[in-house]
Amino acid sequence: MKDKIKQLANDLAGEFVANRRHLHQNPELSYEEFKTQQYVAARLKEIGITPTEIANTGLVATIEGNNPSSKIVALRADMDALPIVEANDVPYKSLNQGVMHACGHDVHTASLLGVSKILYNLRNEFDGTVKLVFQPAEEKAPGGASVMIAEGALLNPAPSKMLGQHVAPNIPVGKIGFREGMYMASADELYFTVKGKGGHGAMPELGIDPVLITSHIIVALQQIISRNRNPRYPSVLTFGKVIANGATNVIPNEVYVEGTFRAMDEVWRADALARIKKMAEGIAESMGGTCEVFIQKGYPFLKNEPELTRRMKGAAVEYMGEENVIDLDIWLAAEDFAYYTHHVDSCFYRLGTRNEEKGIISGVHTPTFDIDESALEIGAGLMSWLAVSELAL
Ligand SMILES: [Zn+2]
Ligand SMILES: [Zn+2]
């Protein structure tokens, strides 16, 4: 089976690249993936697979093997692009000015199309069902994954296992990375409006200085991270925007603050958010002002089910060789695949796409992000192999 998959992936590699280039040239923003949805649906129908529309711009489909209800494994690709002006001078440069596949979701989608073709060809040679999940809007709250789940993507049929992959510009092409357990963070957005009473900078006694209140809040909140958090669970609190629009000699009426809180545990996450709100409000009040706290909740933390992940890593070693399968570190970025991981045993792994010799080194979400396209043959072939390995259990 492994050799058949490798052969098919190799034979079809040109098609994977063509699909990726089409998607890369025609990127669409989160929740607007209408043409992408049409393109994916058309390719699936060509293969012989009938997709169903879901979540407005998403698709689900199944490939039934023998005994289709014996086991169901879902495979996920995200399809949205980012509001970035592409700076690469390549033949497949974005034709949609200001929109760019700078997070590799074109690669994930093209890979899953490749998996679809490989496994449809081999459908008489495995037991169970492969469920294909093409989701919109990974990049934008509330996250396409949450909409997909709400609309029943994990039902009829309900998968017992789920896999997702993501490009990794820090990992050389030809290598794959796994991590068991907590892997990526929850991410919540914090918005504070600290109000005081402005006035002349020379007469602070007549006002209530919201700049000083904000300063105390920012310093004090780090205490929640250092003193209330269980040190076994990583967590981050960062404020990246502070606007106090006074002047050298003007105390403003209010200060506006934005930040992000990240965590690797849902109980701690809820506790920390409550503490952040209480402490910010309390400090402002004790200093004579107020602090309005608005928290935009984001994605949960991403957990890779340990036993599934261990099996997938083992299967990847069989496919790629031991030297090409690496262990990943915890990463406090967020990813909406995390929603699935709280519903079904899941494994989210990294596909190496870096090639220093070709100058392909830019990070995701940058205008010069690109991949070594030989990663597509691996991305499609390996995911096919992981799925049938798990179905064979
Ligand atoms: Zn991204
Ligand atoms: Zn991404």
Automatic annotation (TrEMBL):
Species the sequence originates in: Arcicella rosea
Ranges where the Peptidase M20 dimerisation domain occurs: 192-282
Keyword annotations of the record: Hydrolase, Manganese, Metal-binding
Cofactor binding: number and manner: The Mn(2+) ion enhances activity.
Pfam families given in the database record: M20_dimer, Peptidase_M20
Source organism, top-level taxon: Bacteria
One of the protein's GO biological processes: diaminopimelate biosynthetic process
PANTHER family xrefs: METALLOPEPTIDASE, PUTATIVE (AFU_ORTHOLOGUE AFUA_6G09600)-RELATED, PEPTIDASE M20 FAMILY MEMBER
Record's protein name: Amidohydrolase
Requisite cofactors: Mn(2+)
Molecular function, one GO term: N-acetyldiaminopimelate deacetylase activity
Gene3D superfamilies membership: 3.30.70.360, Zn peptidases
CDD domains, per the entry: M20_Acy1 (cd03886)
Residues binding Mn(2+), per UniProt: 103, 105, 139, 166, 365
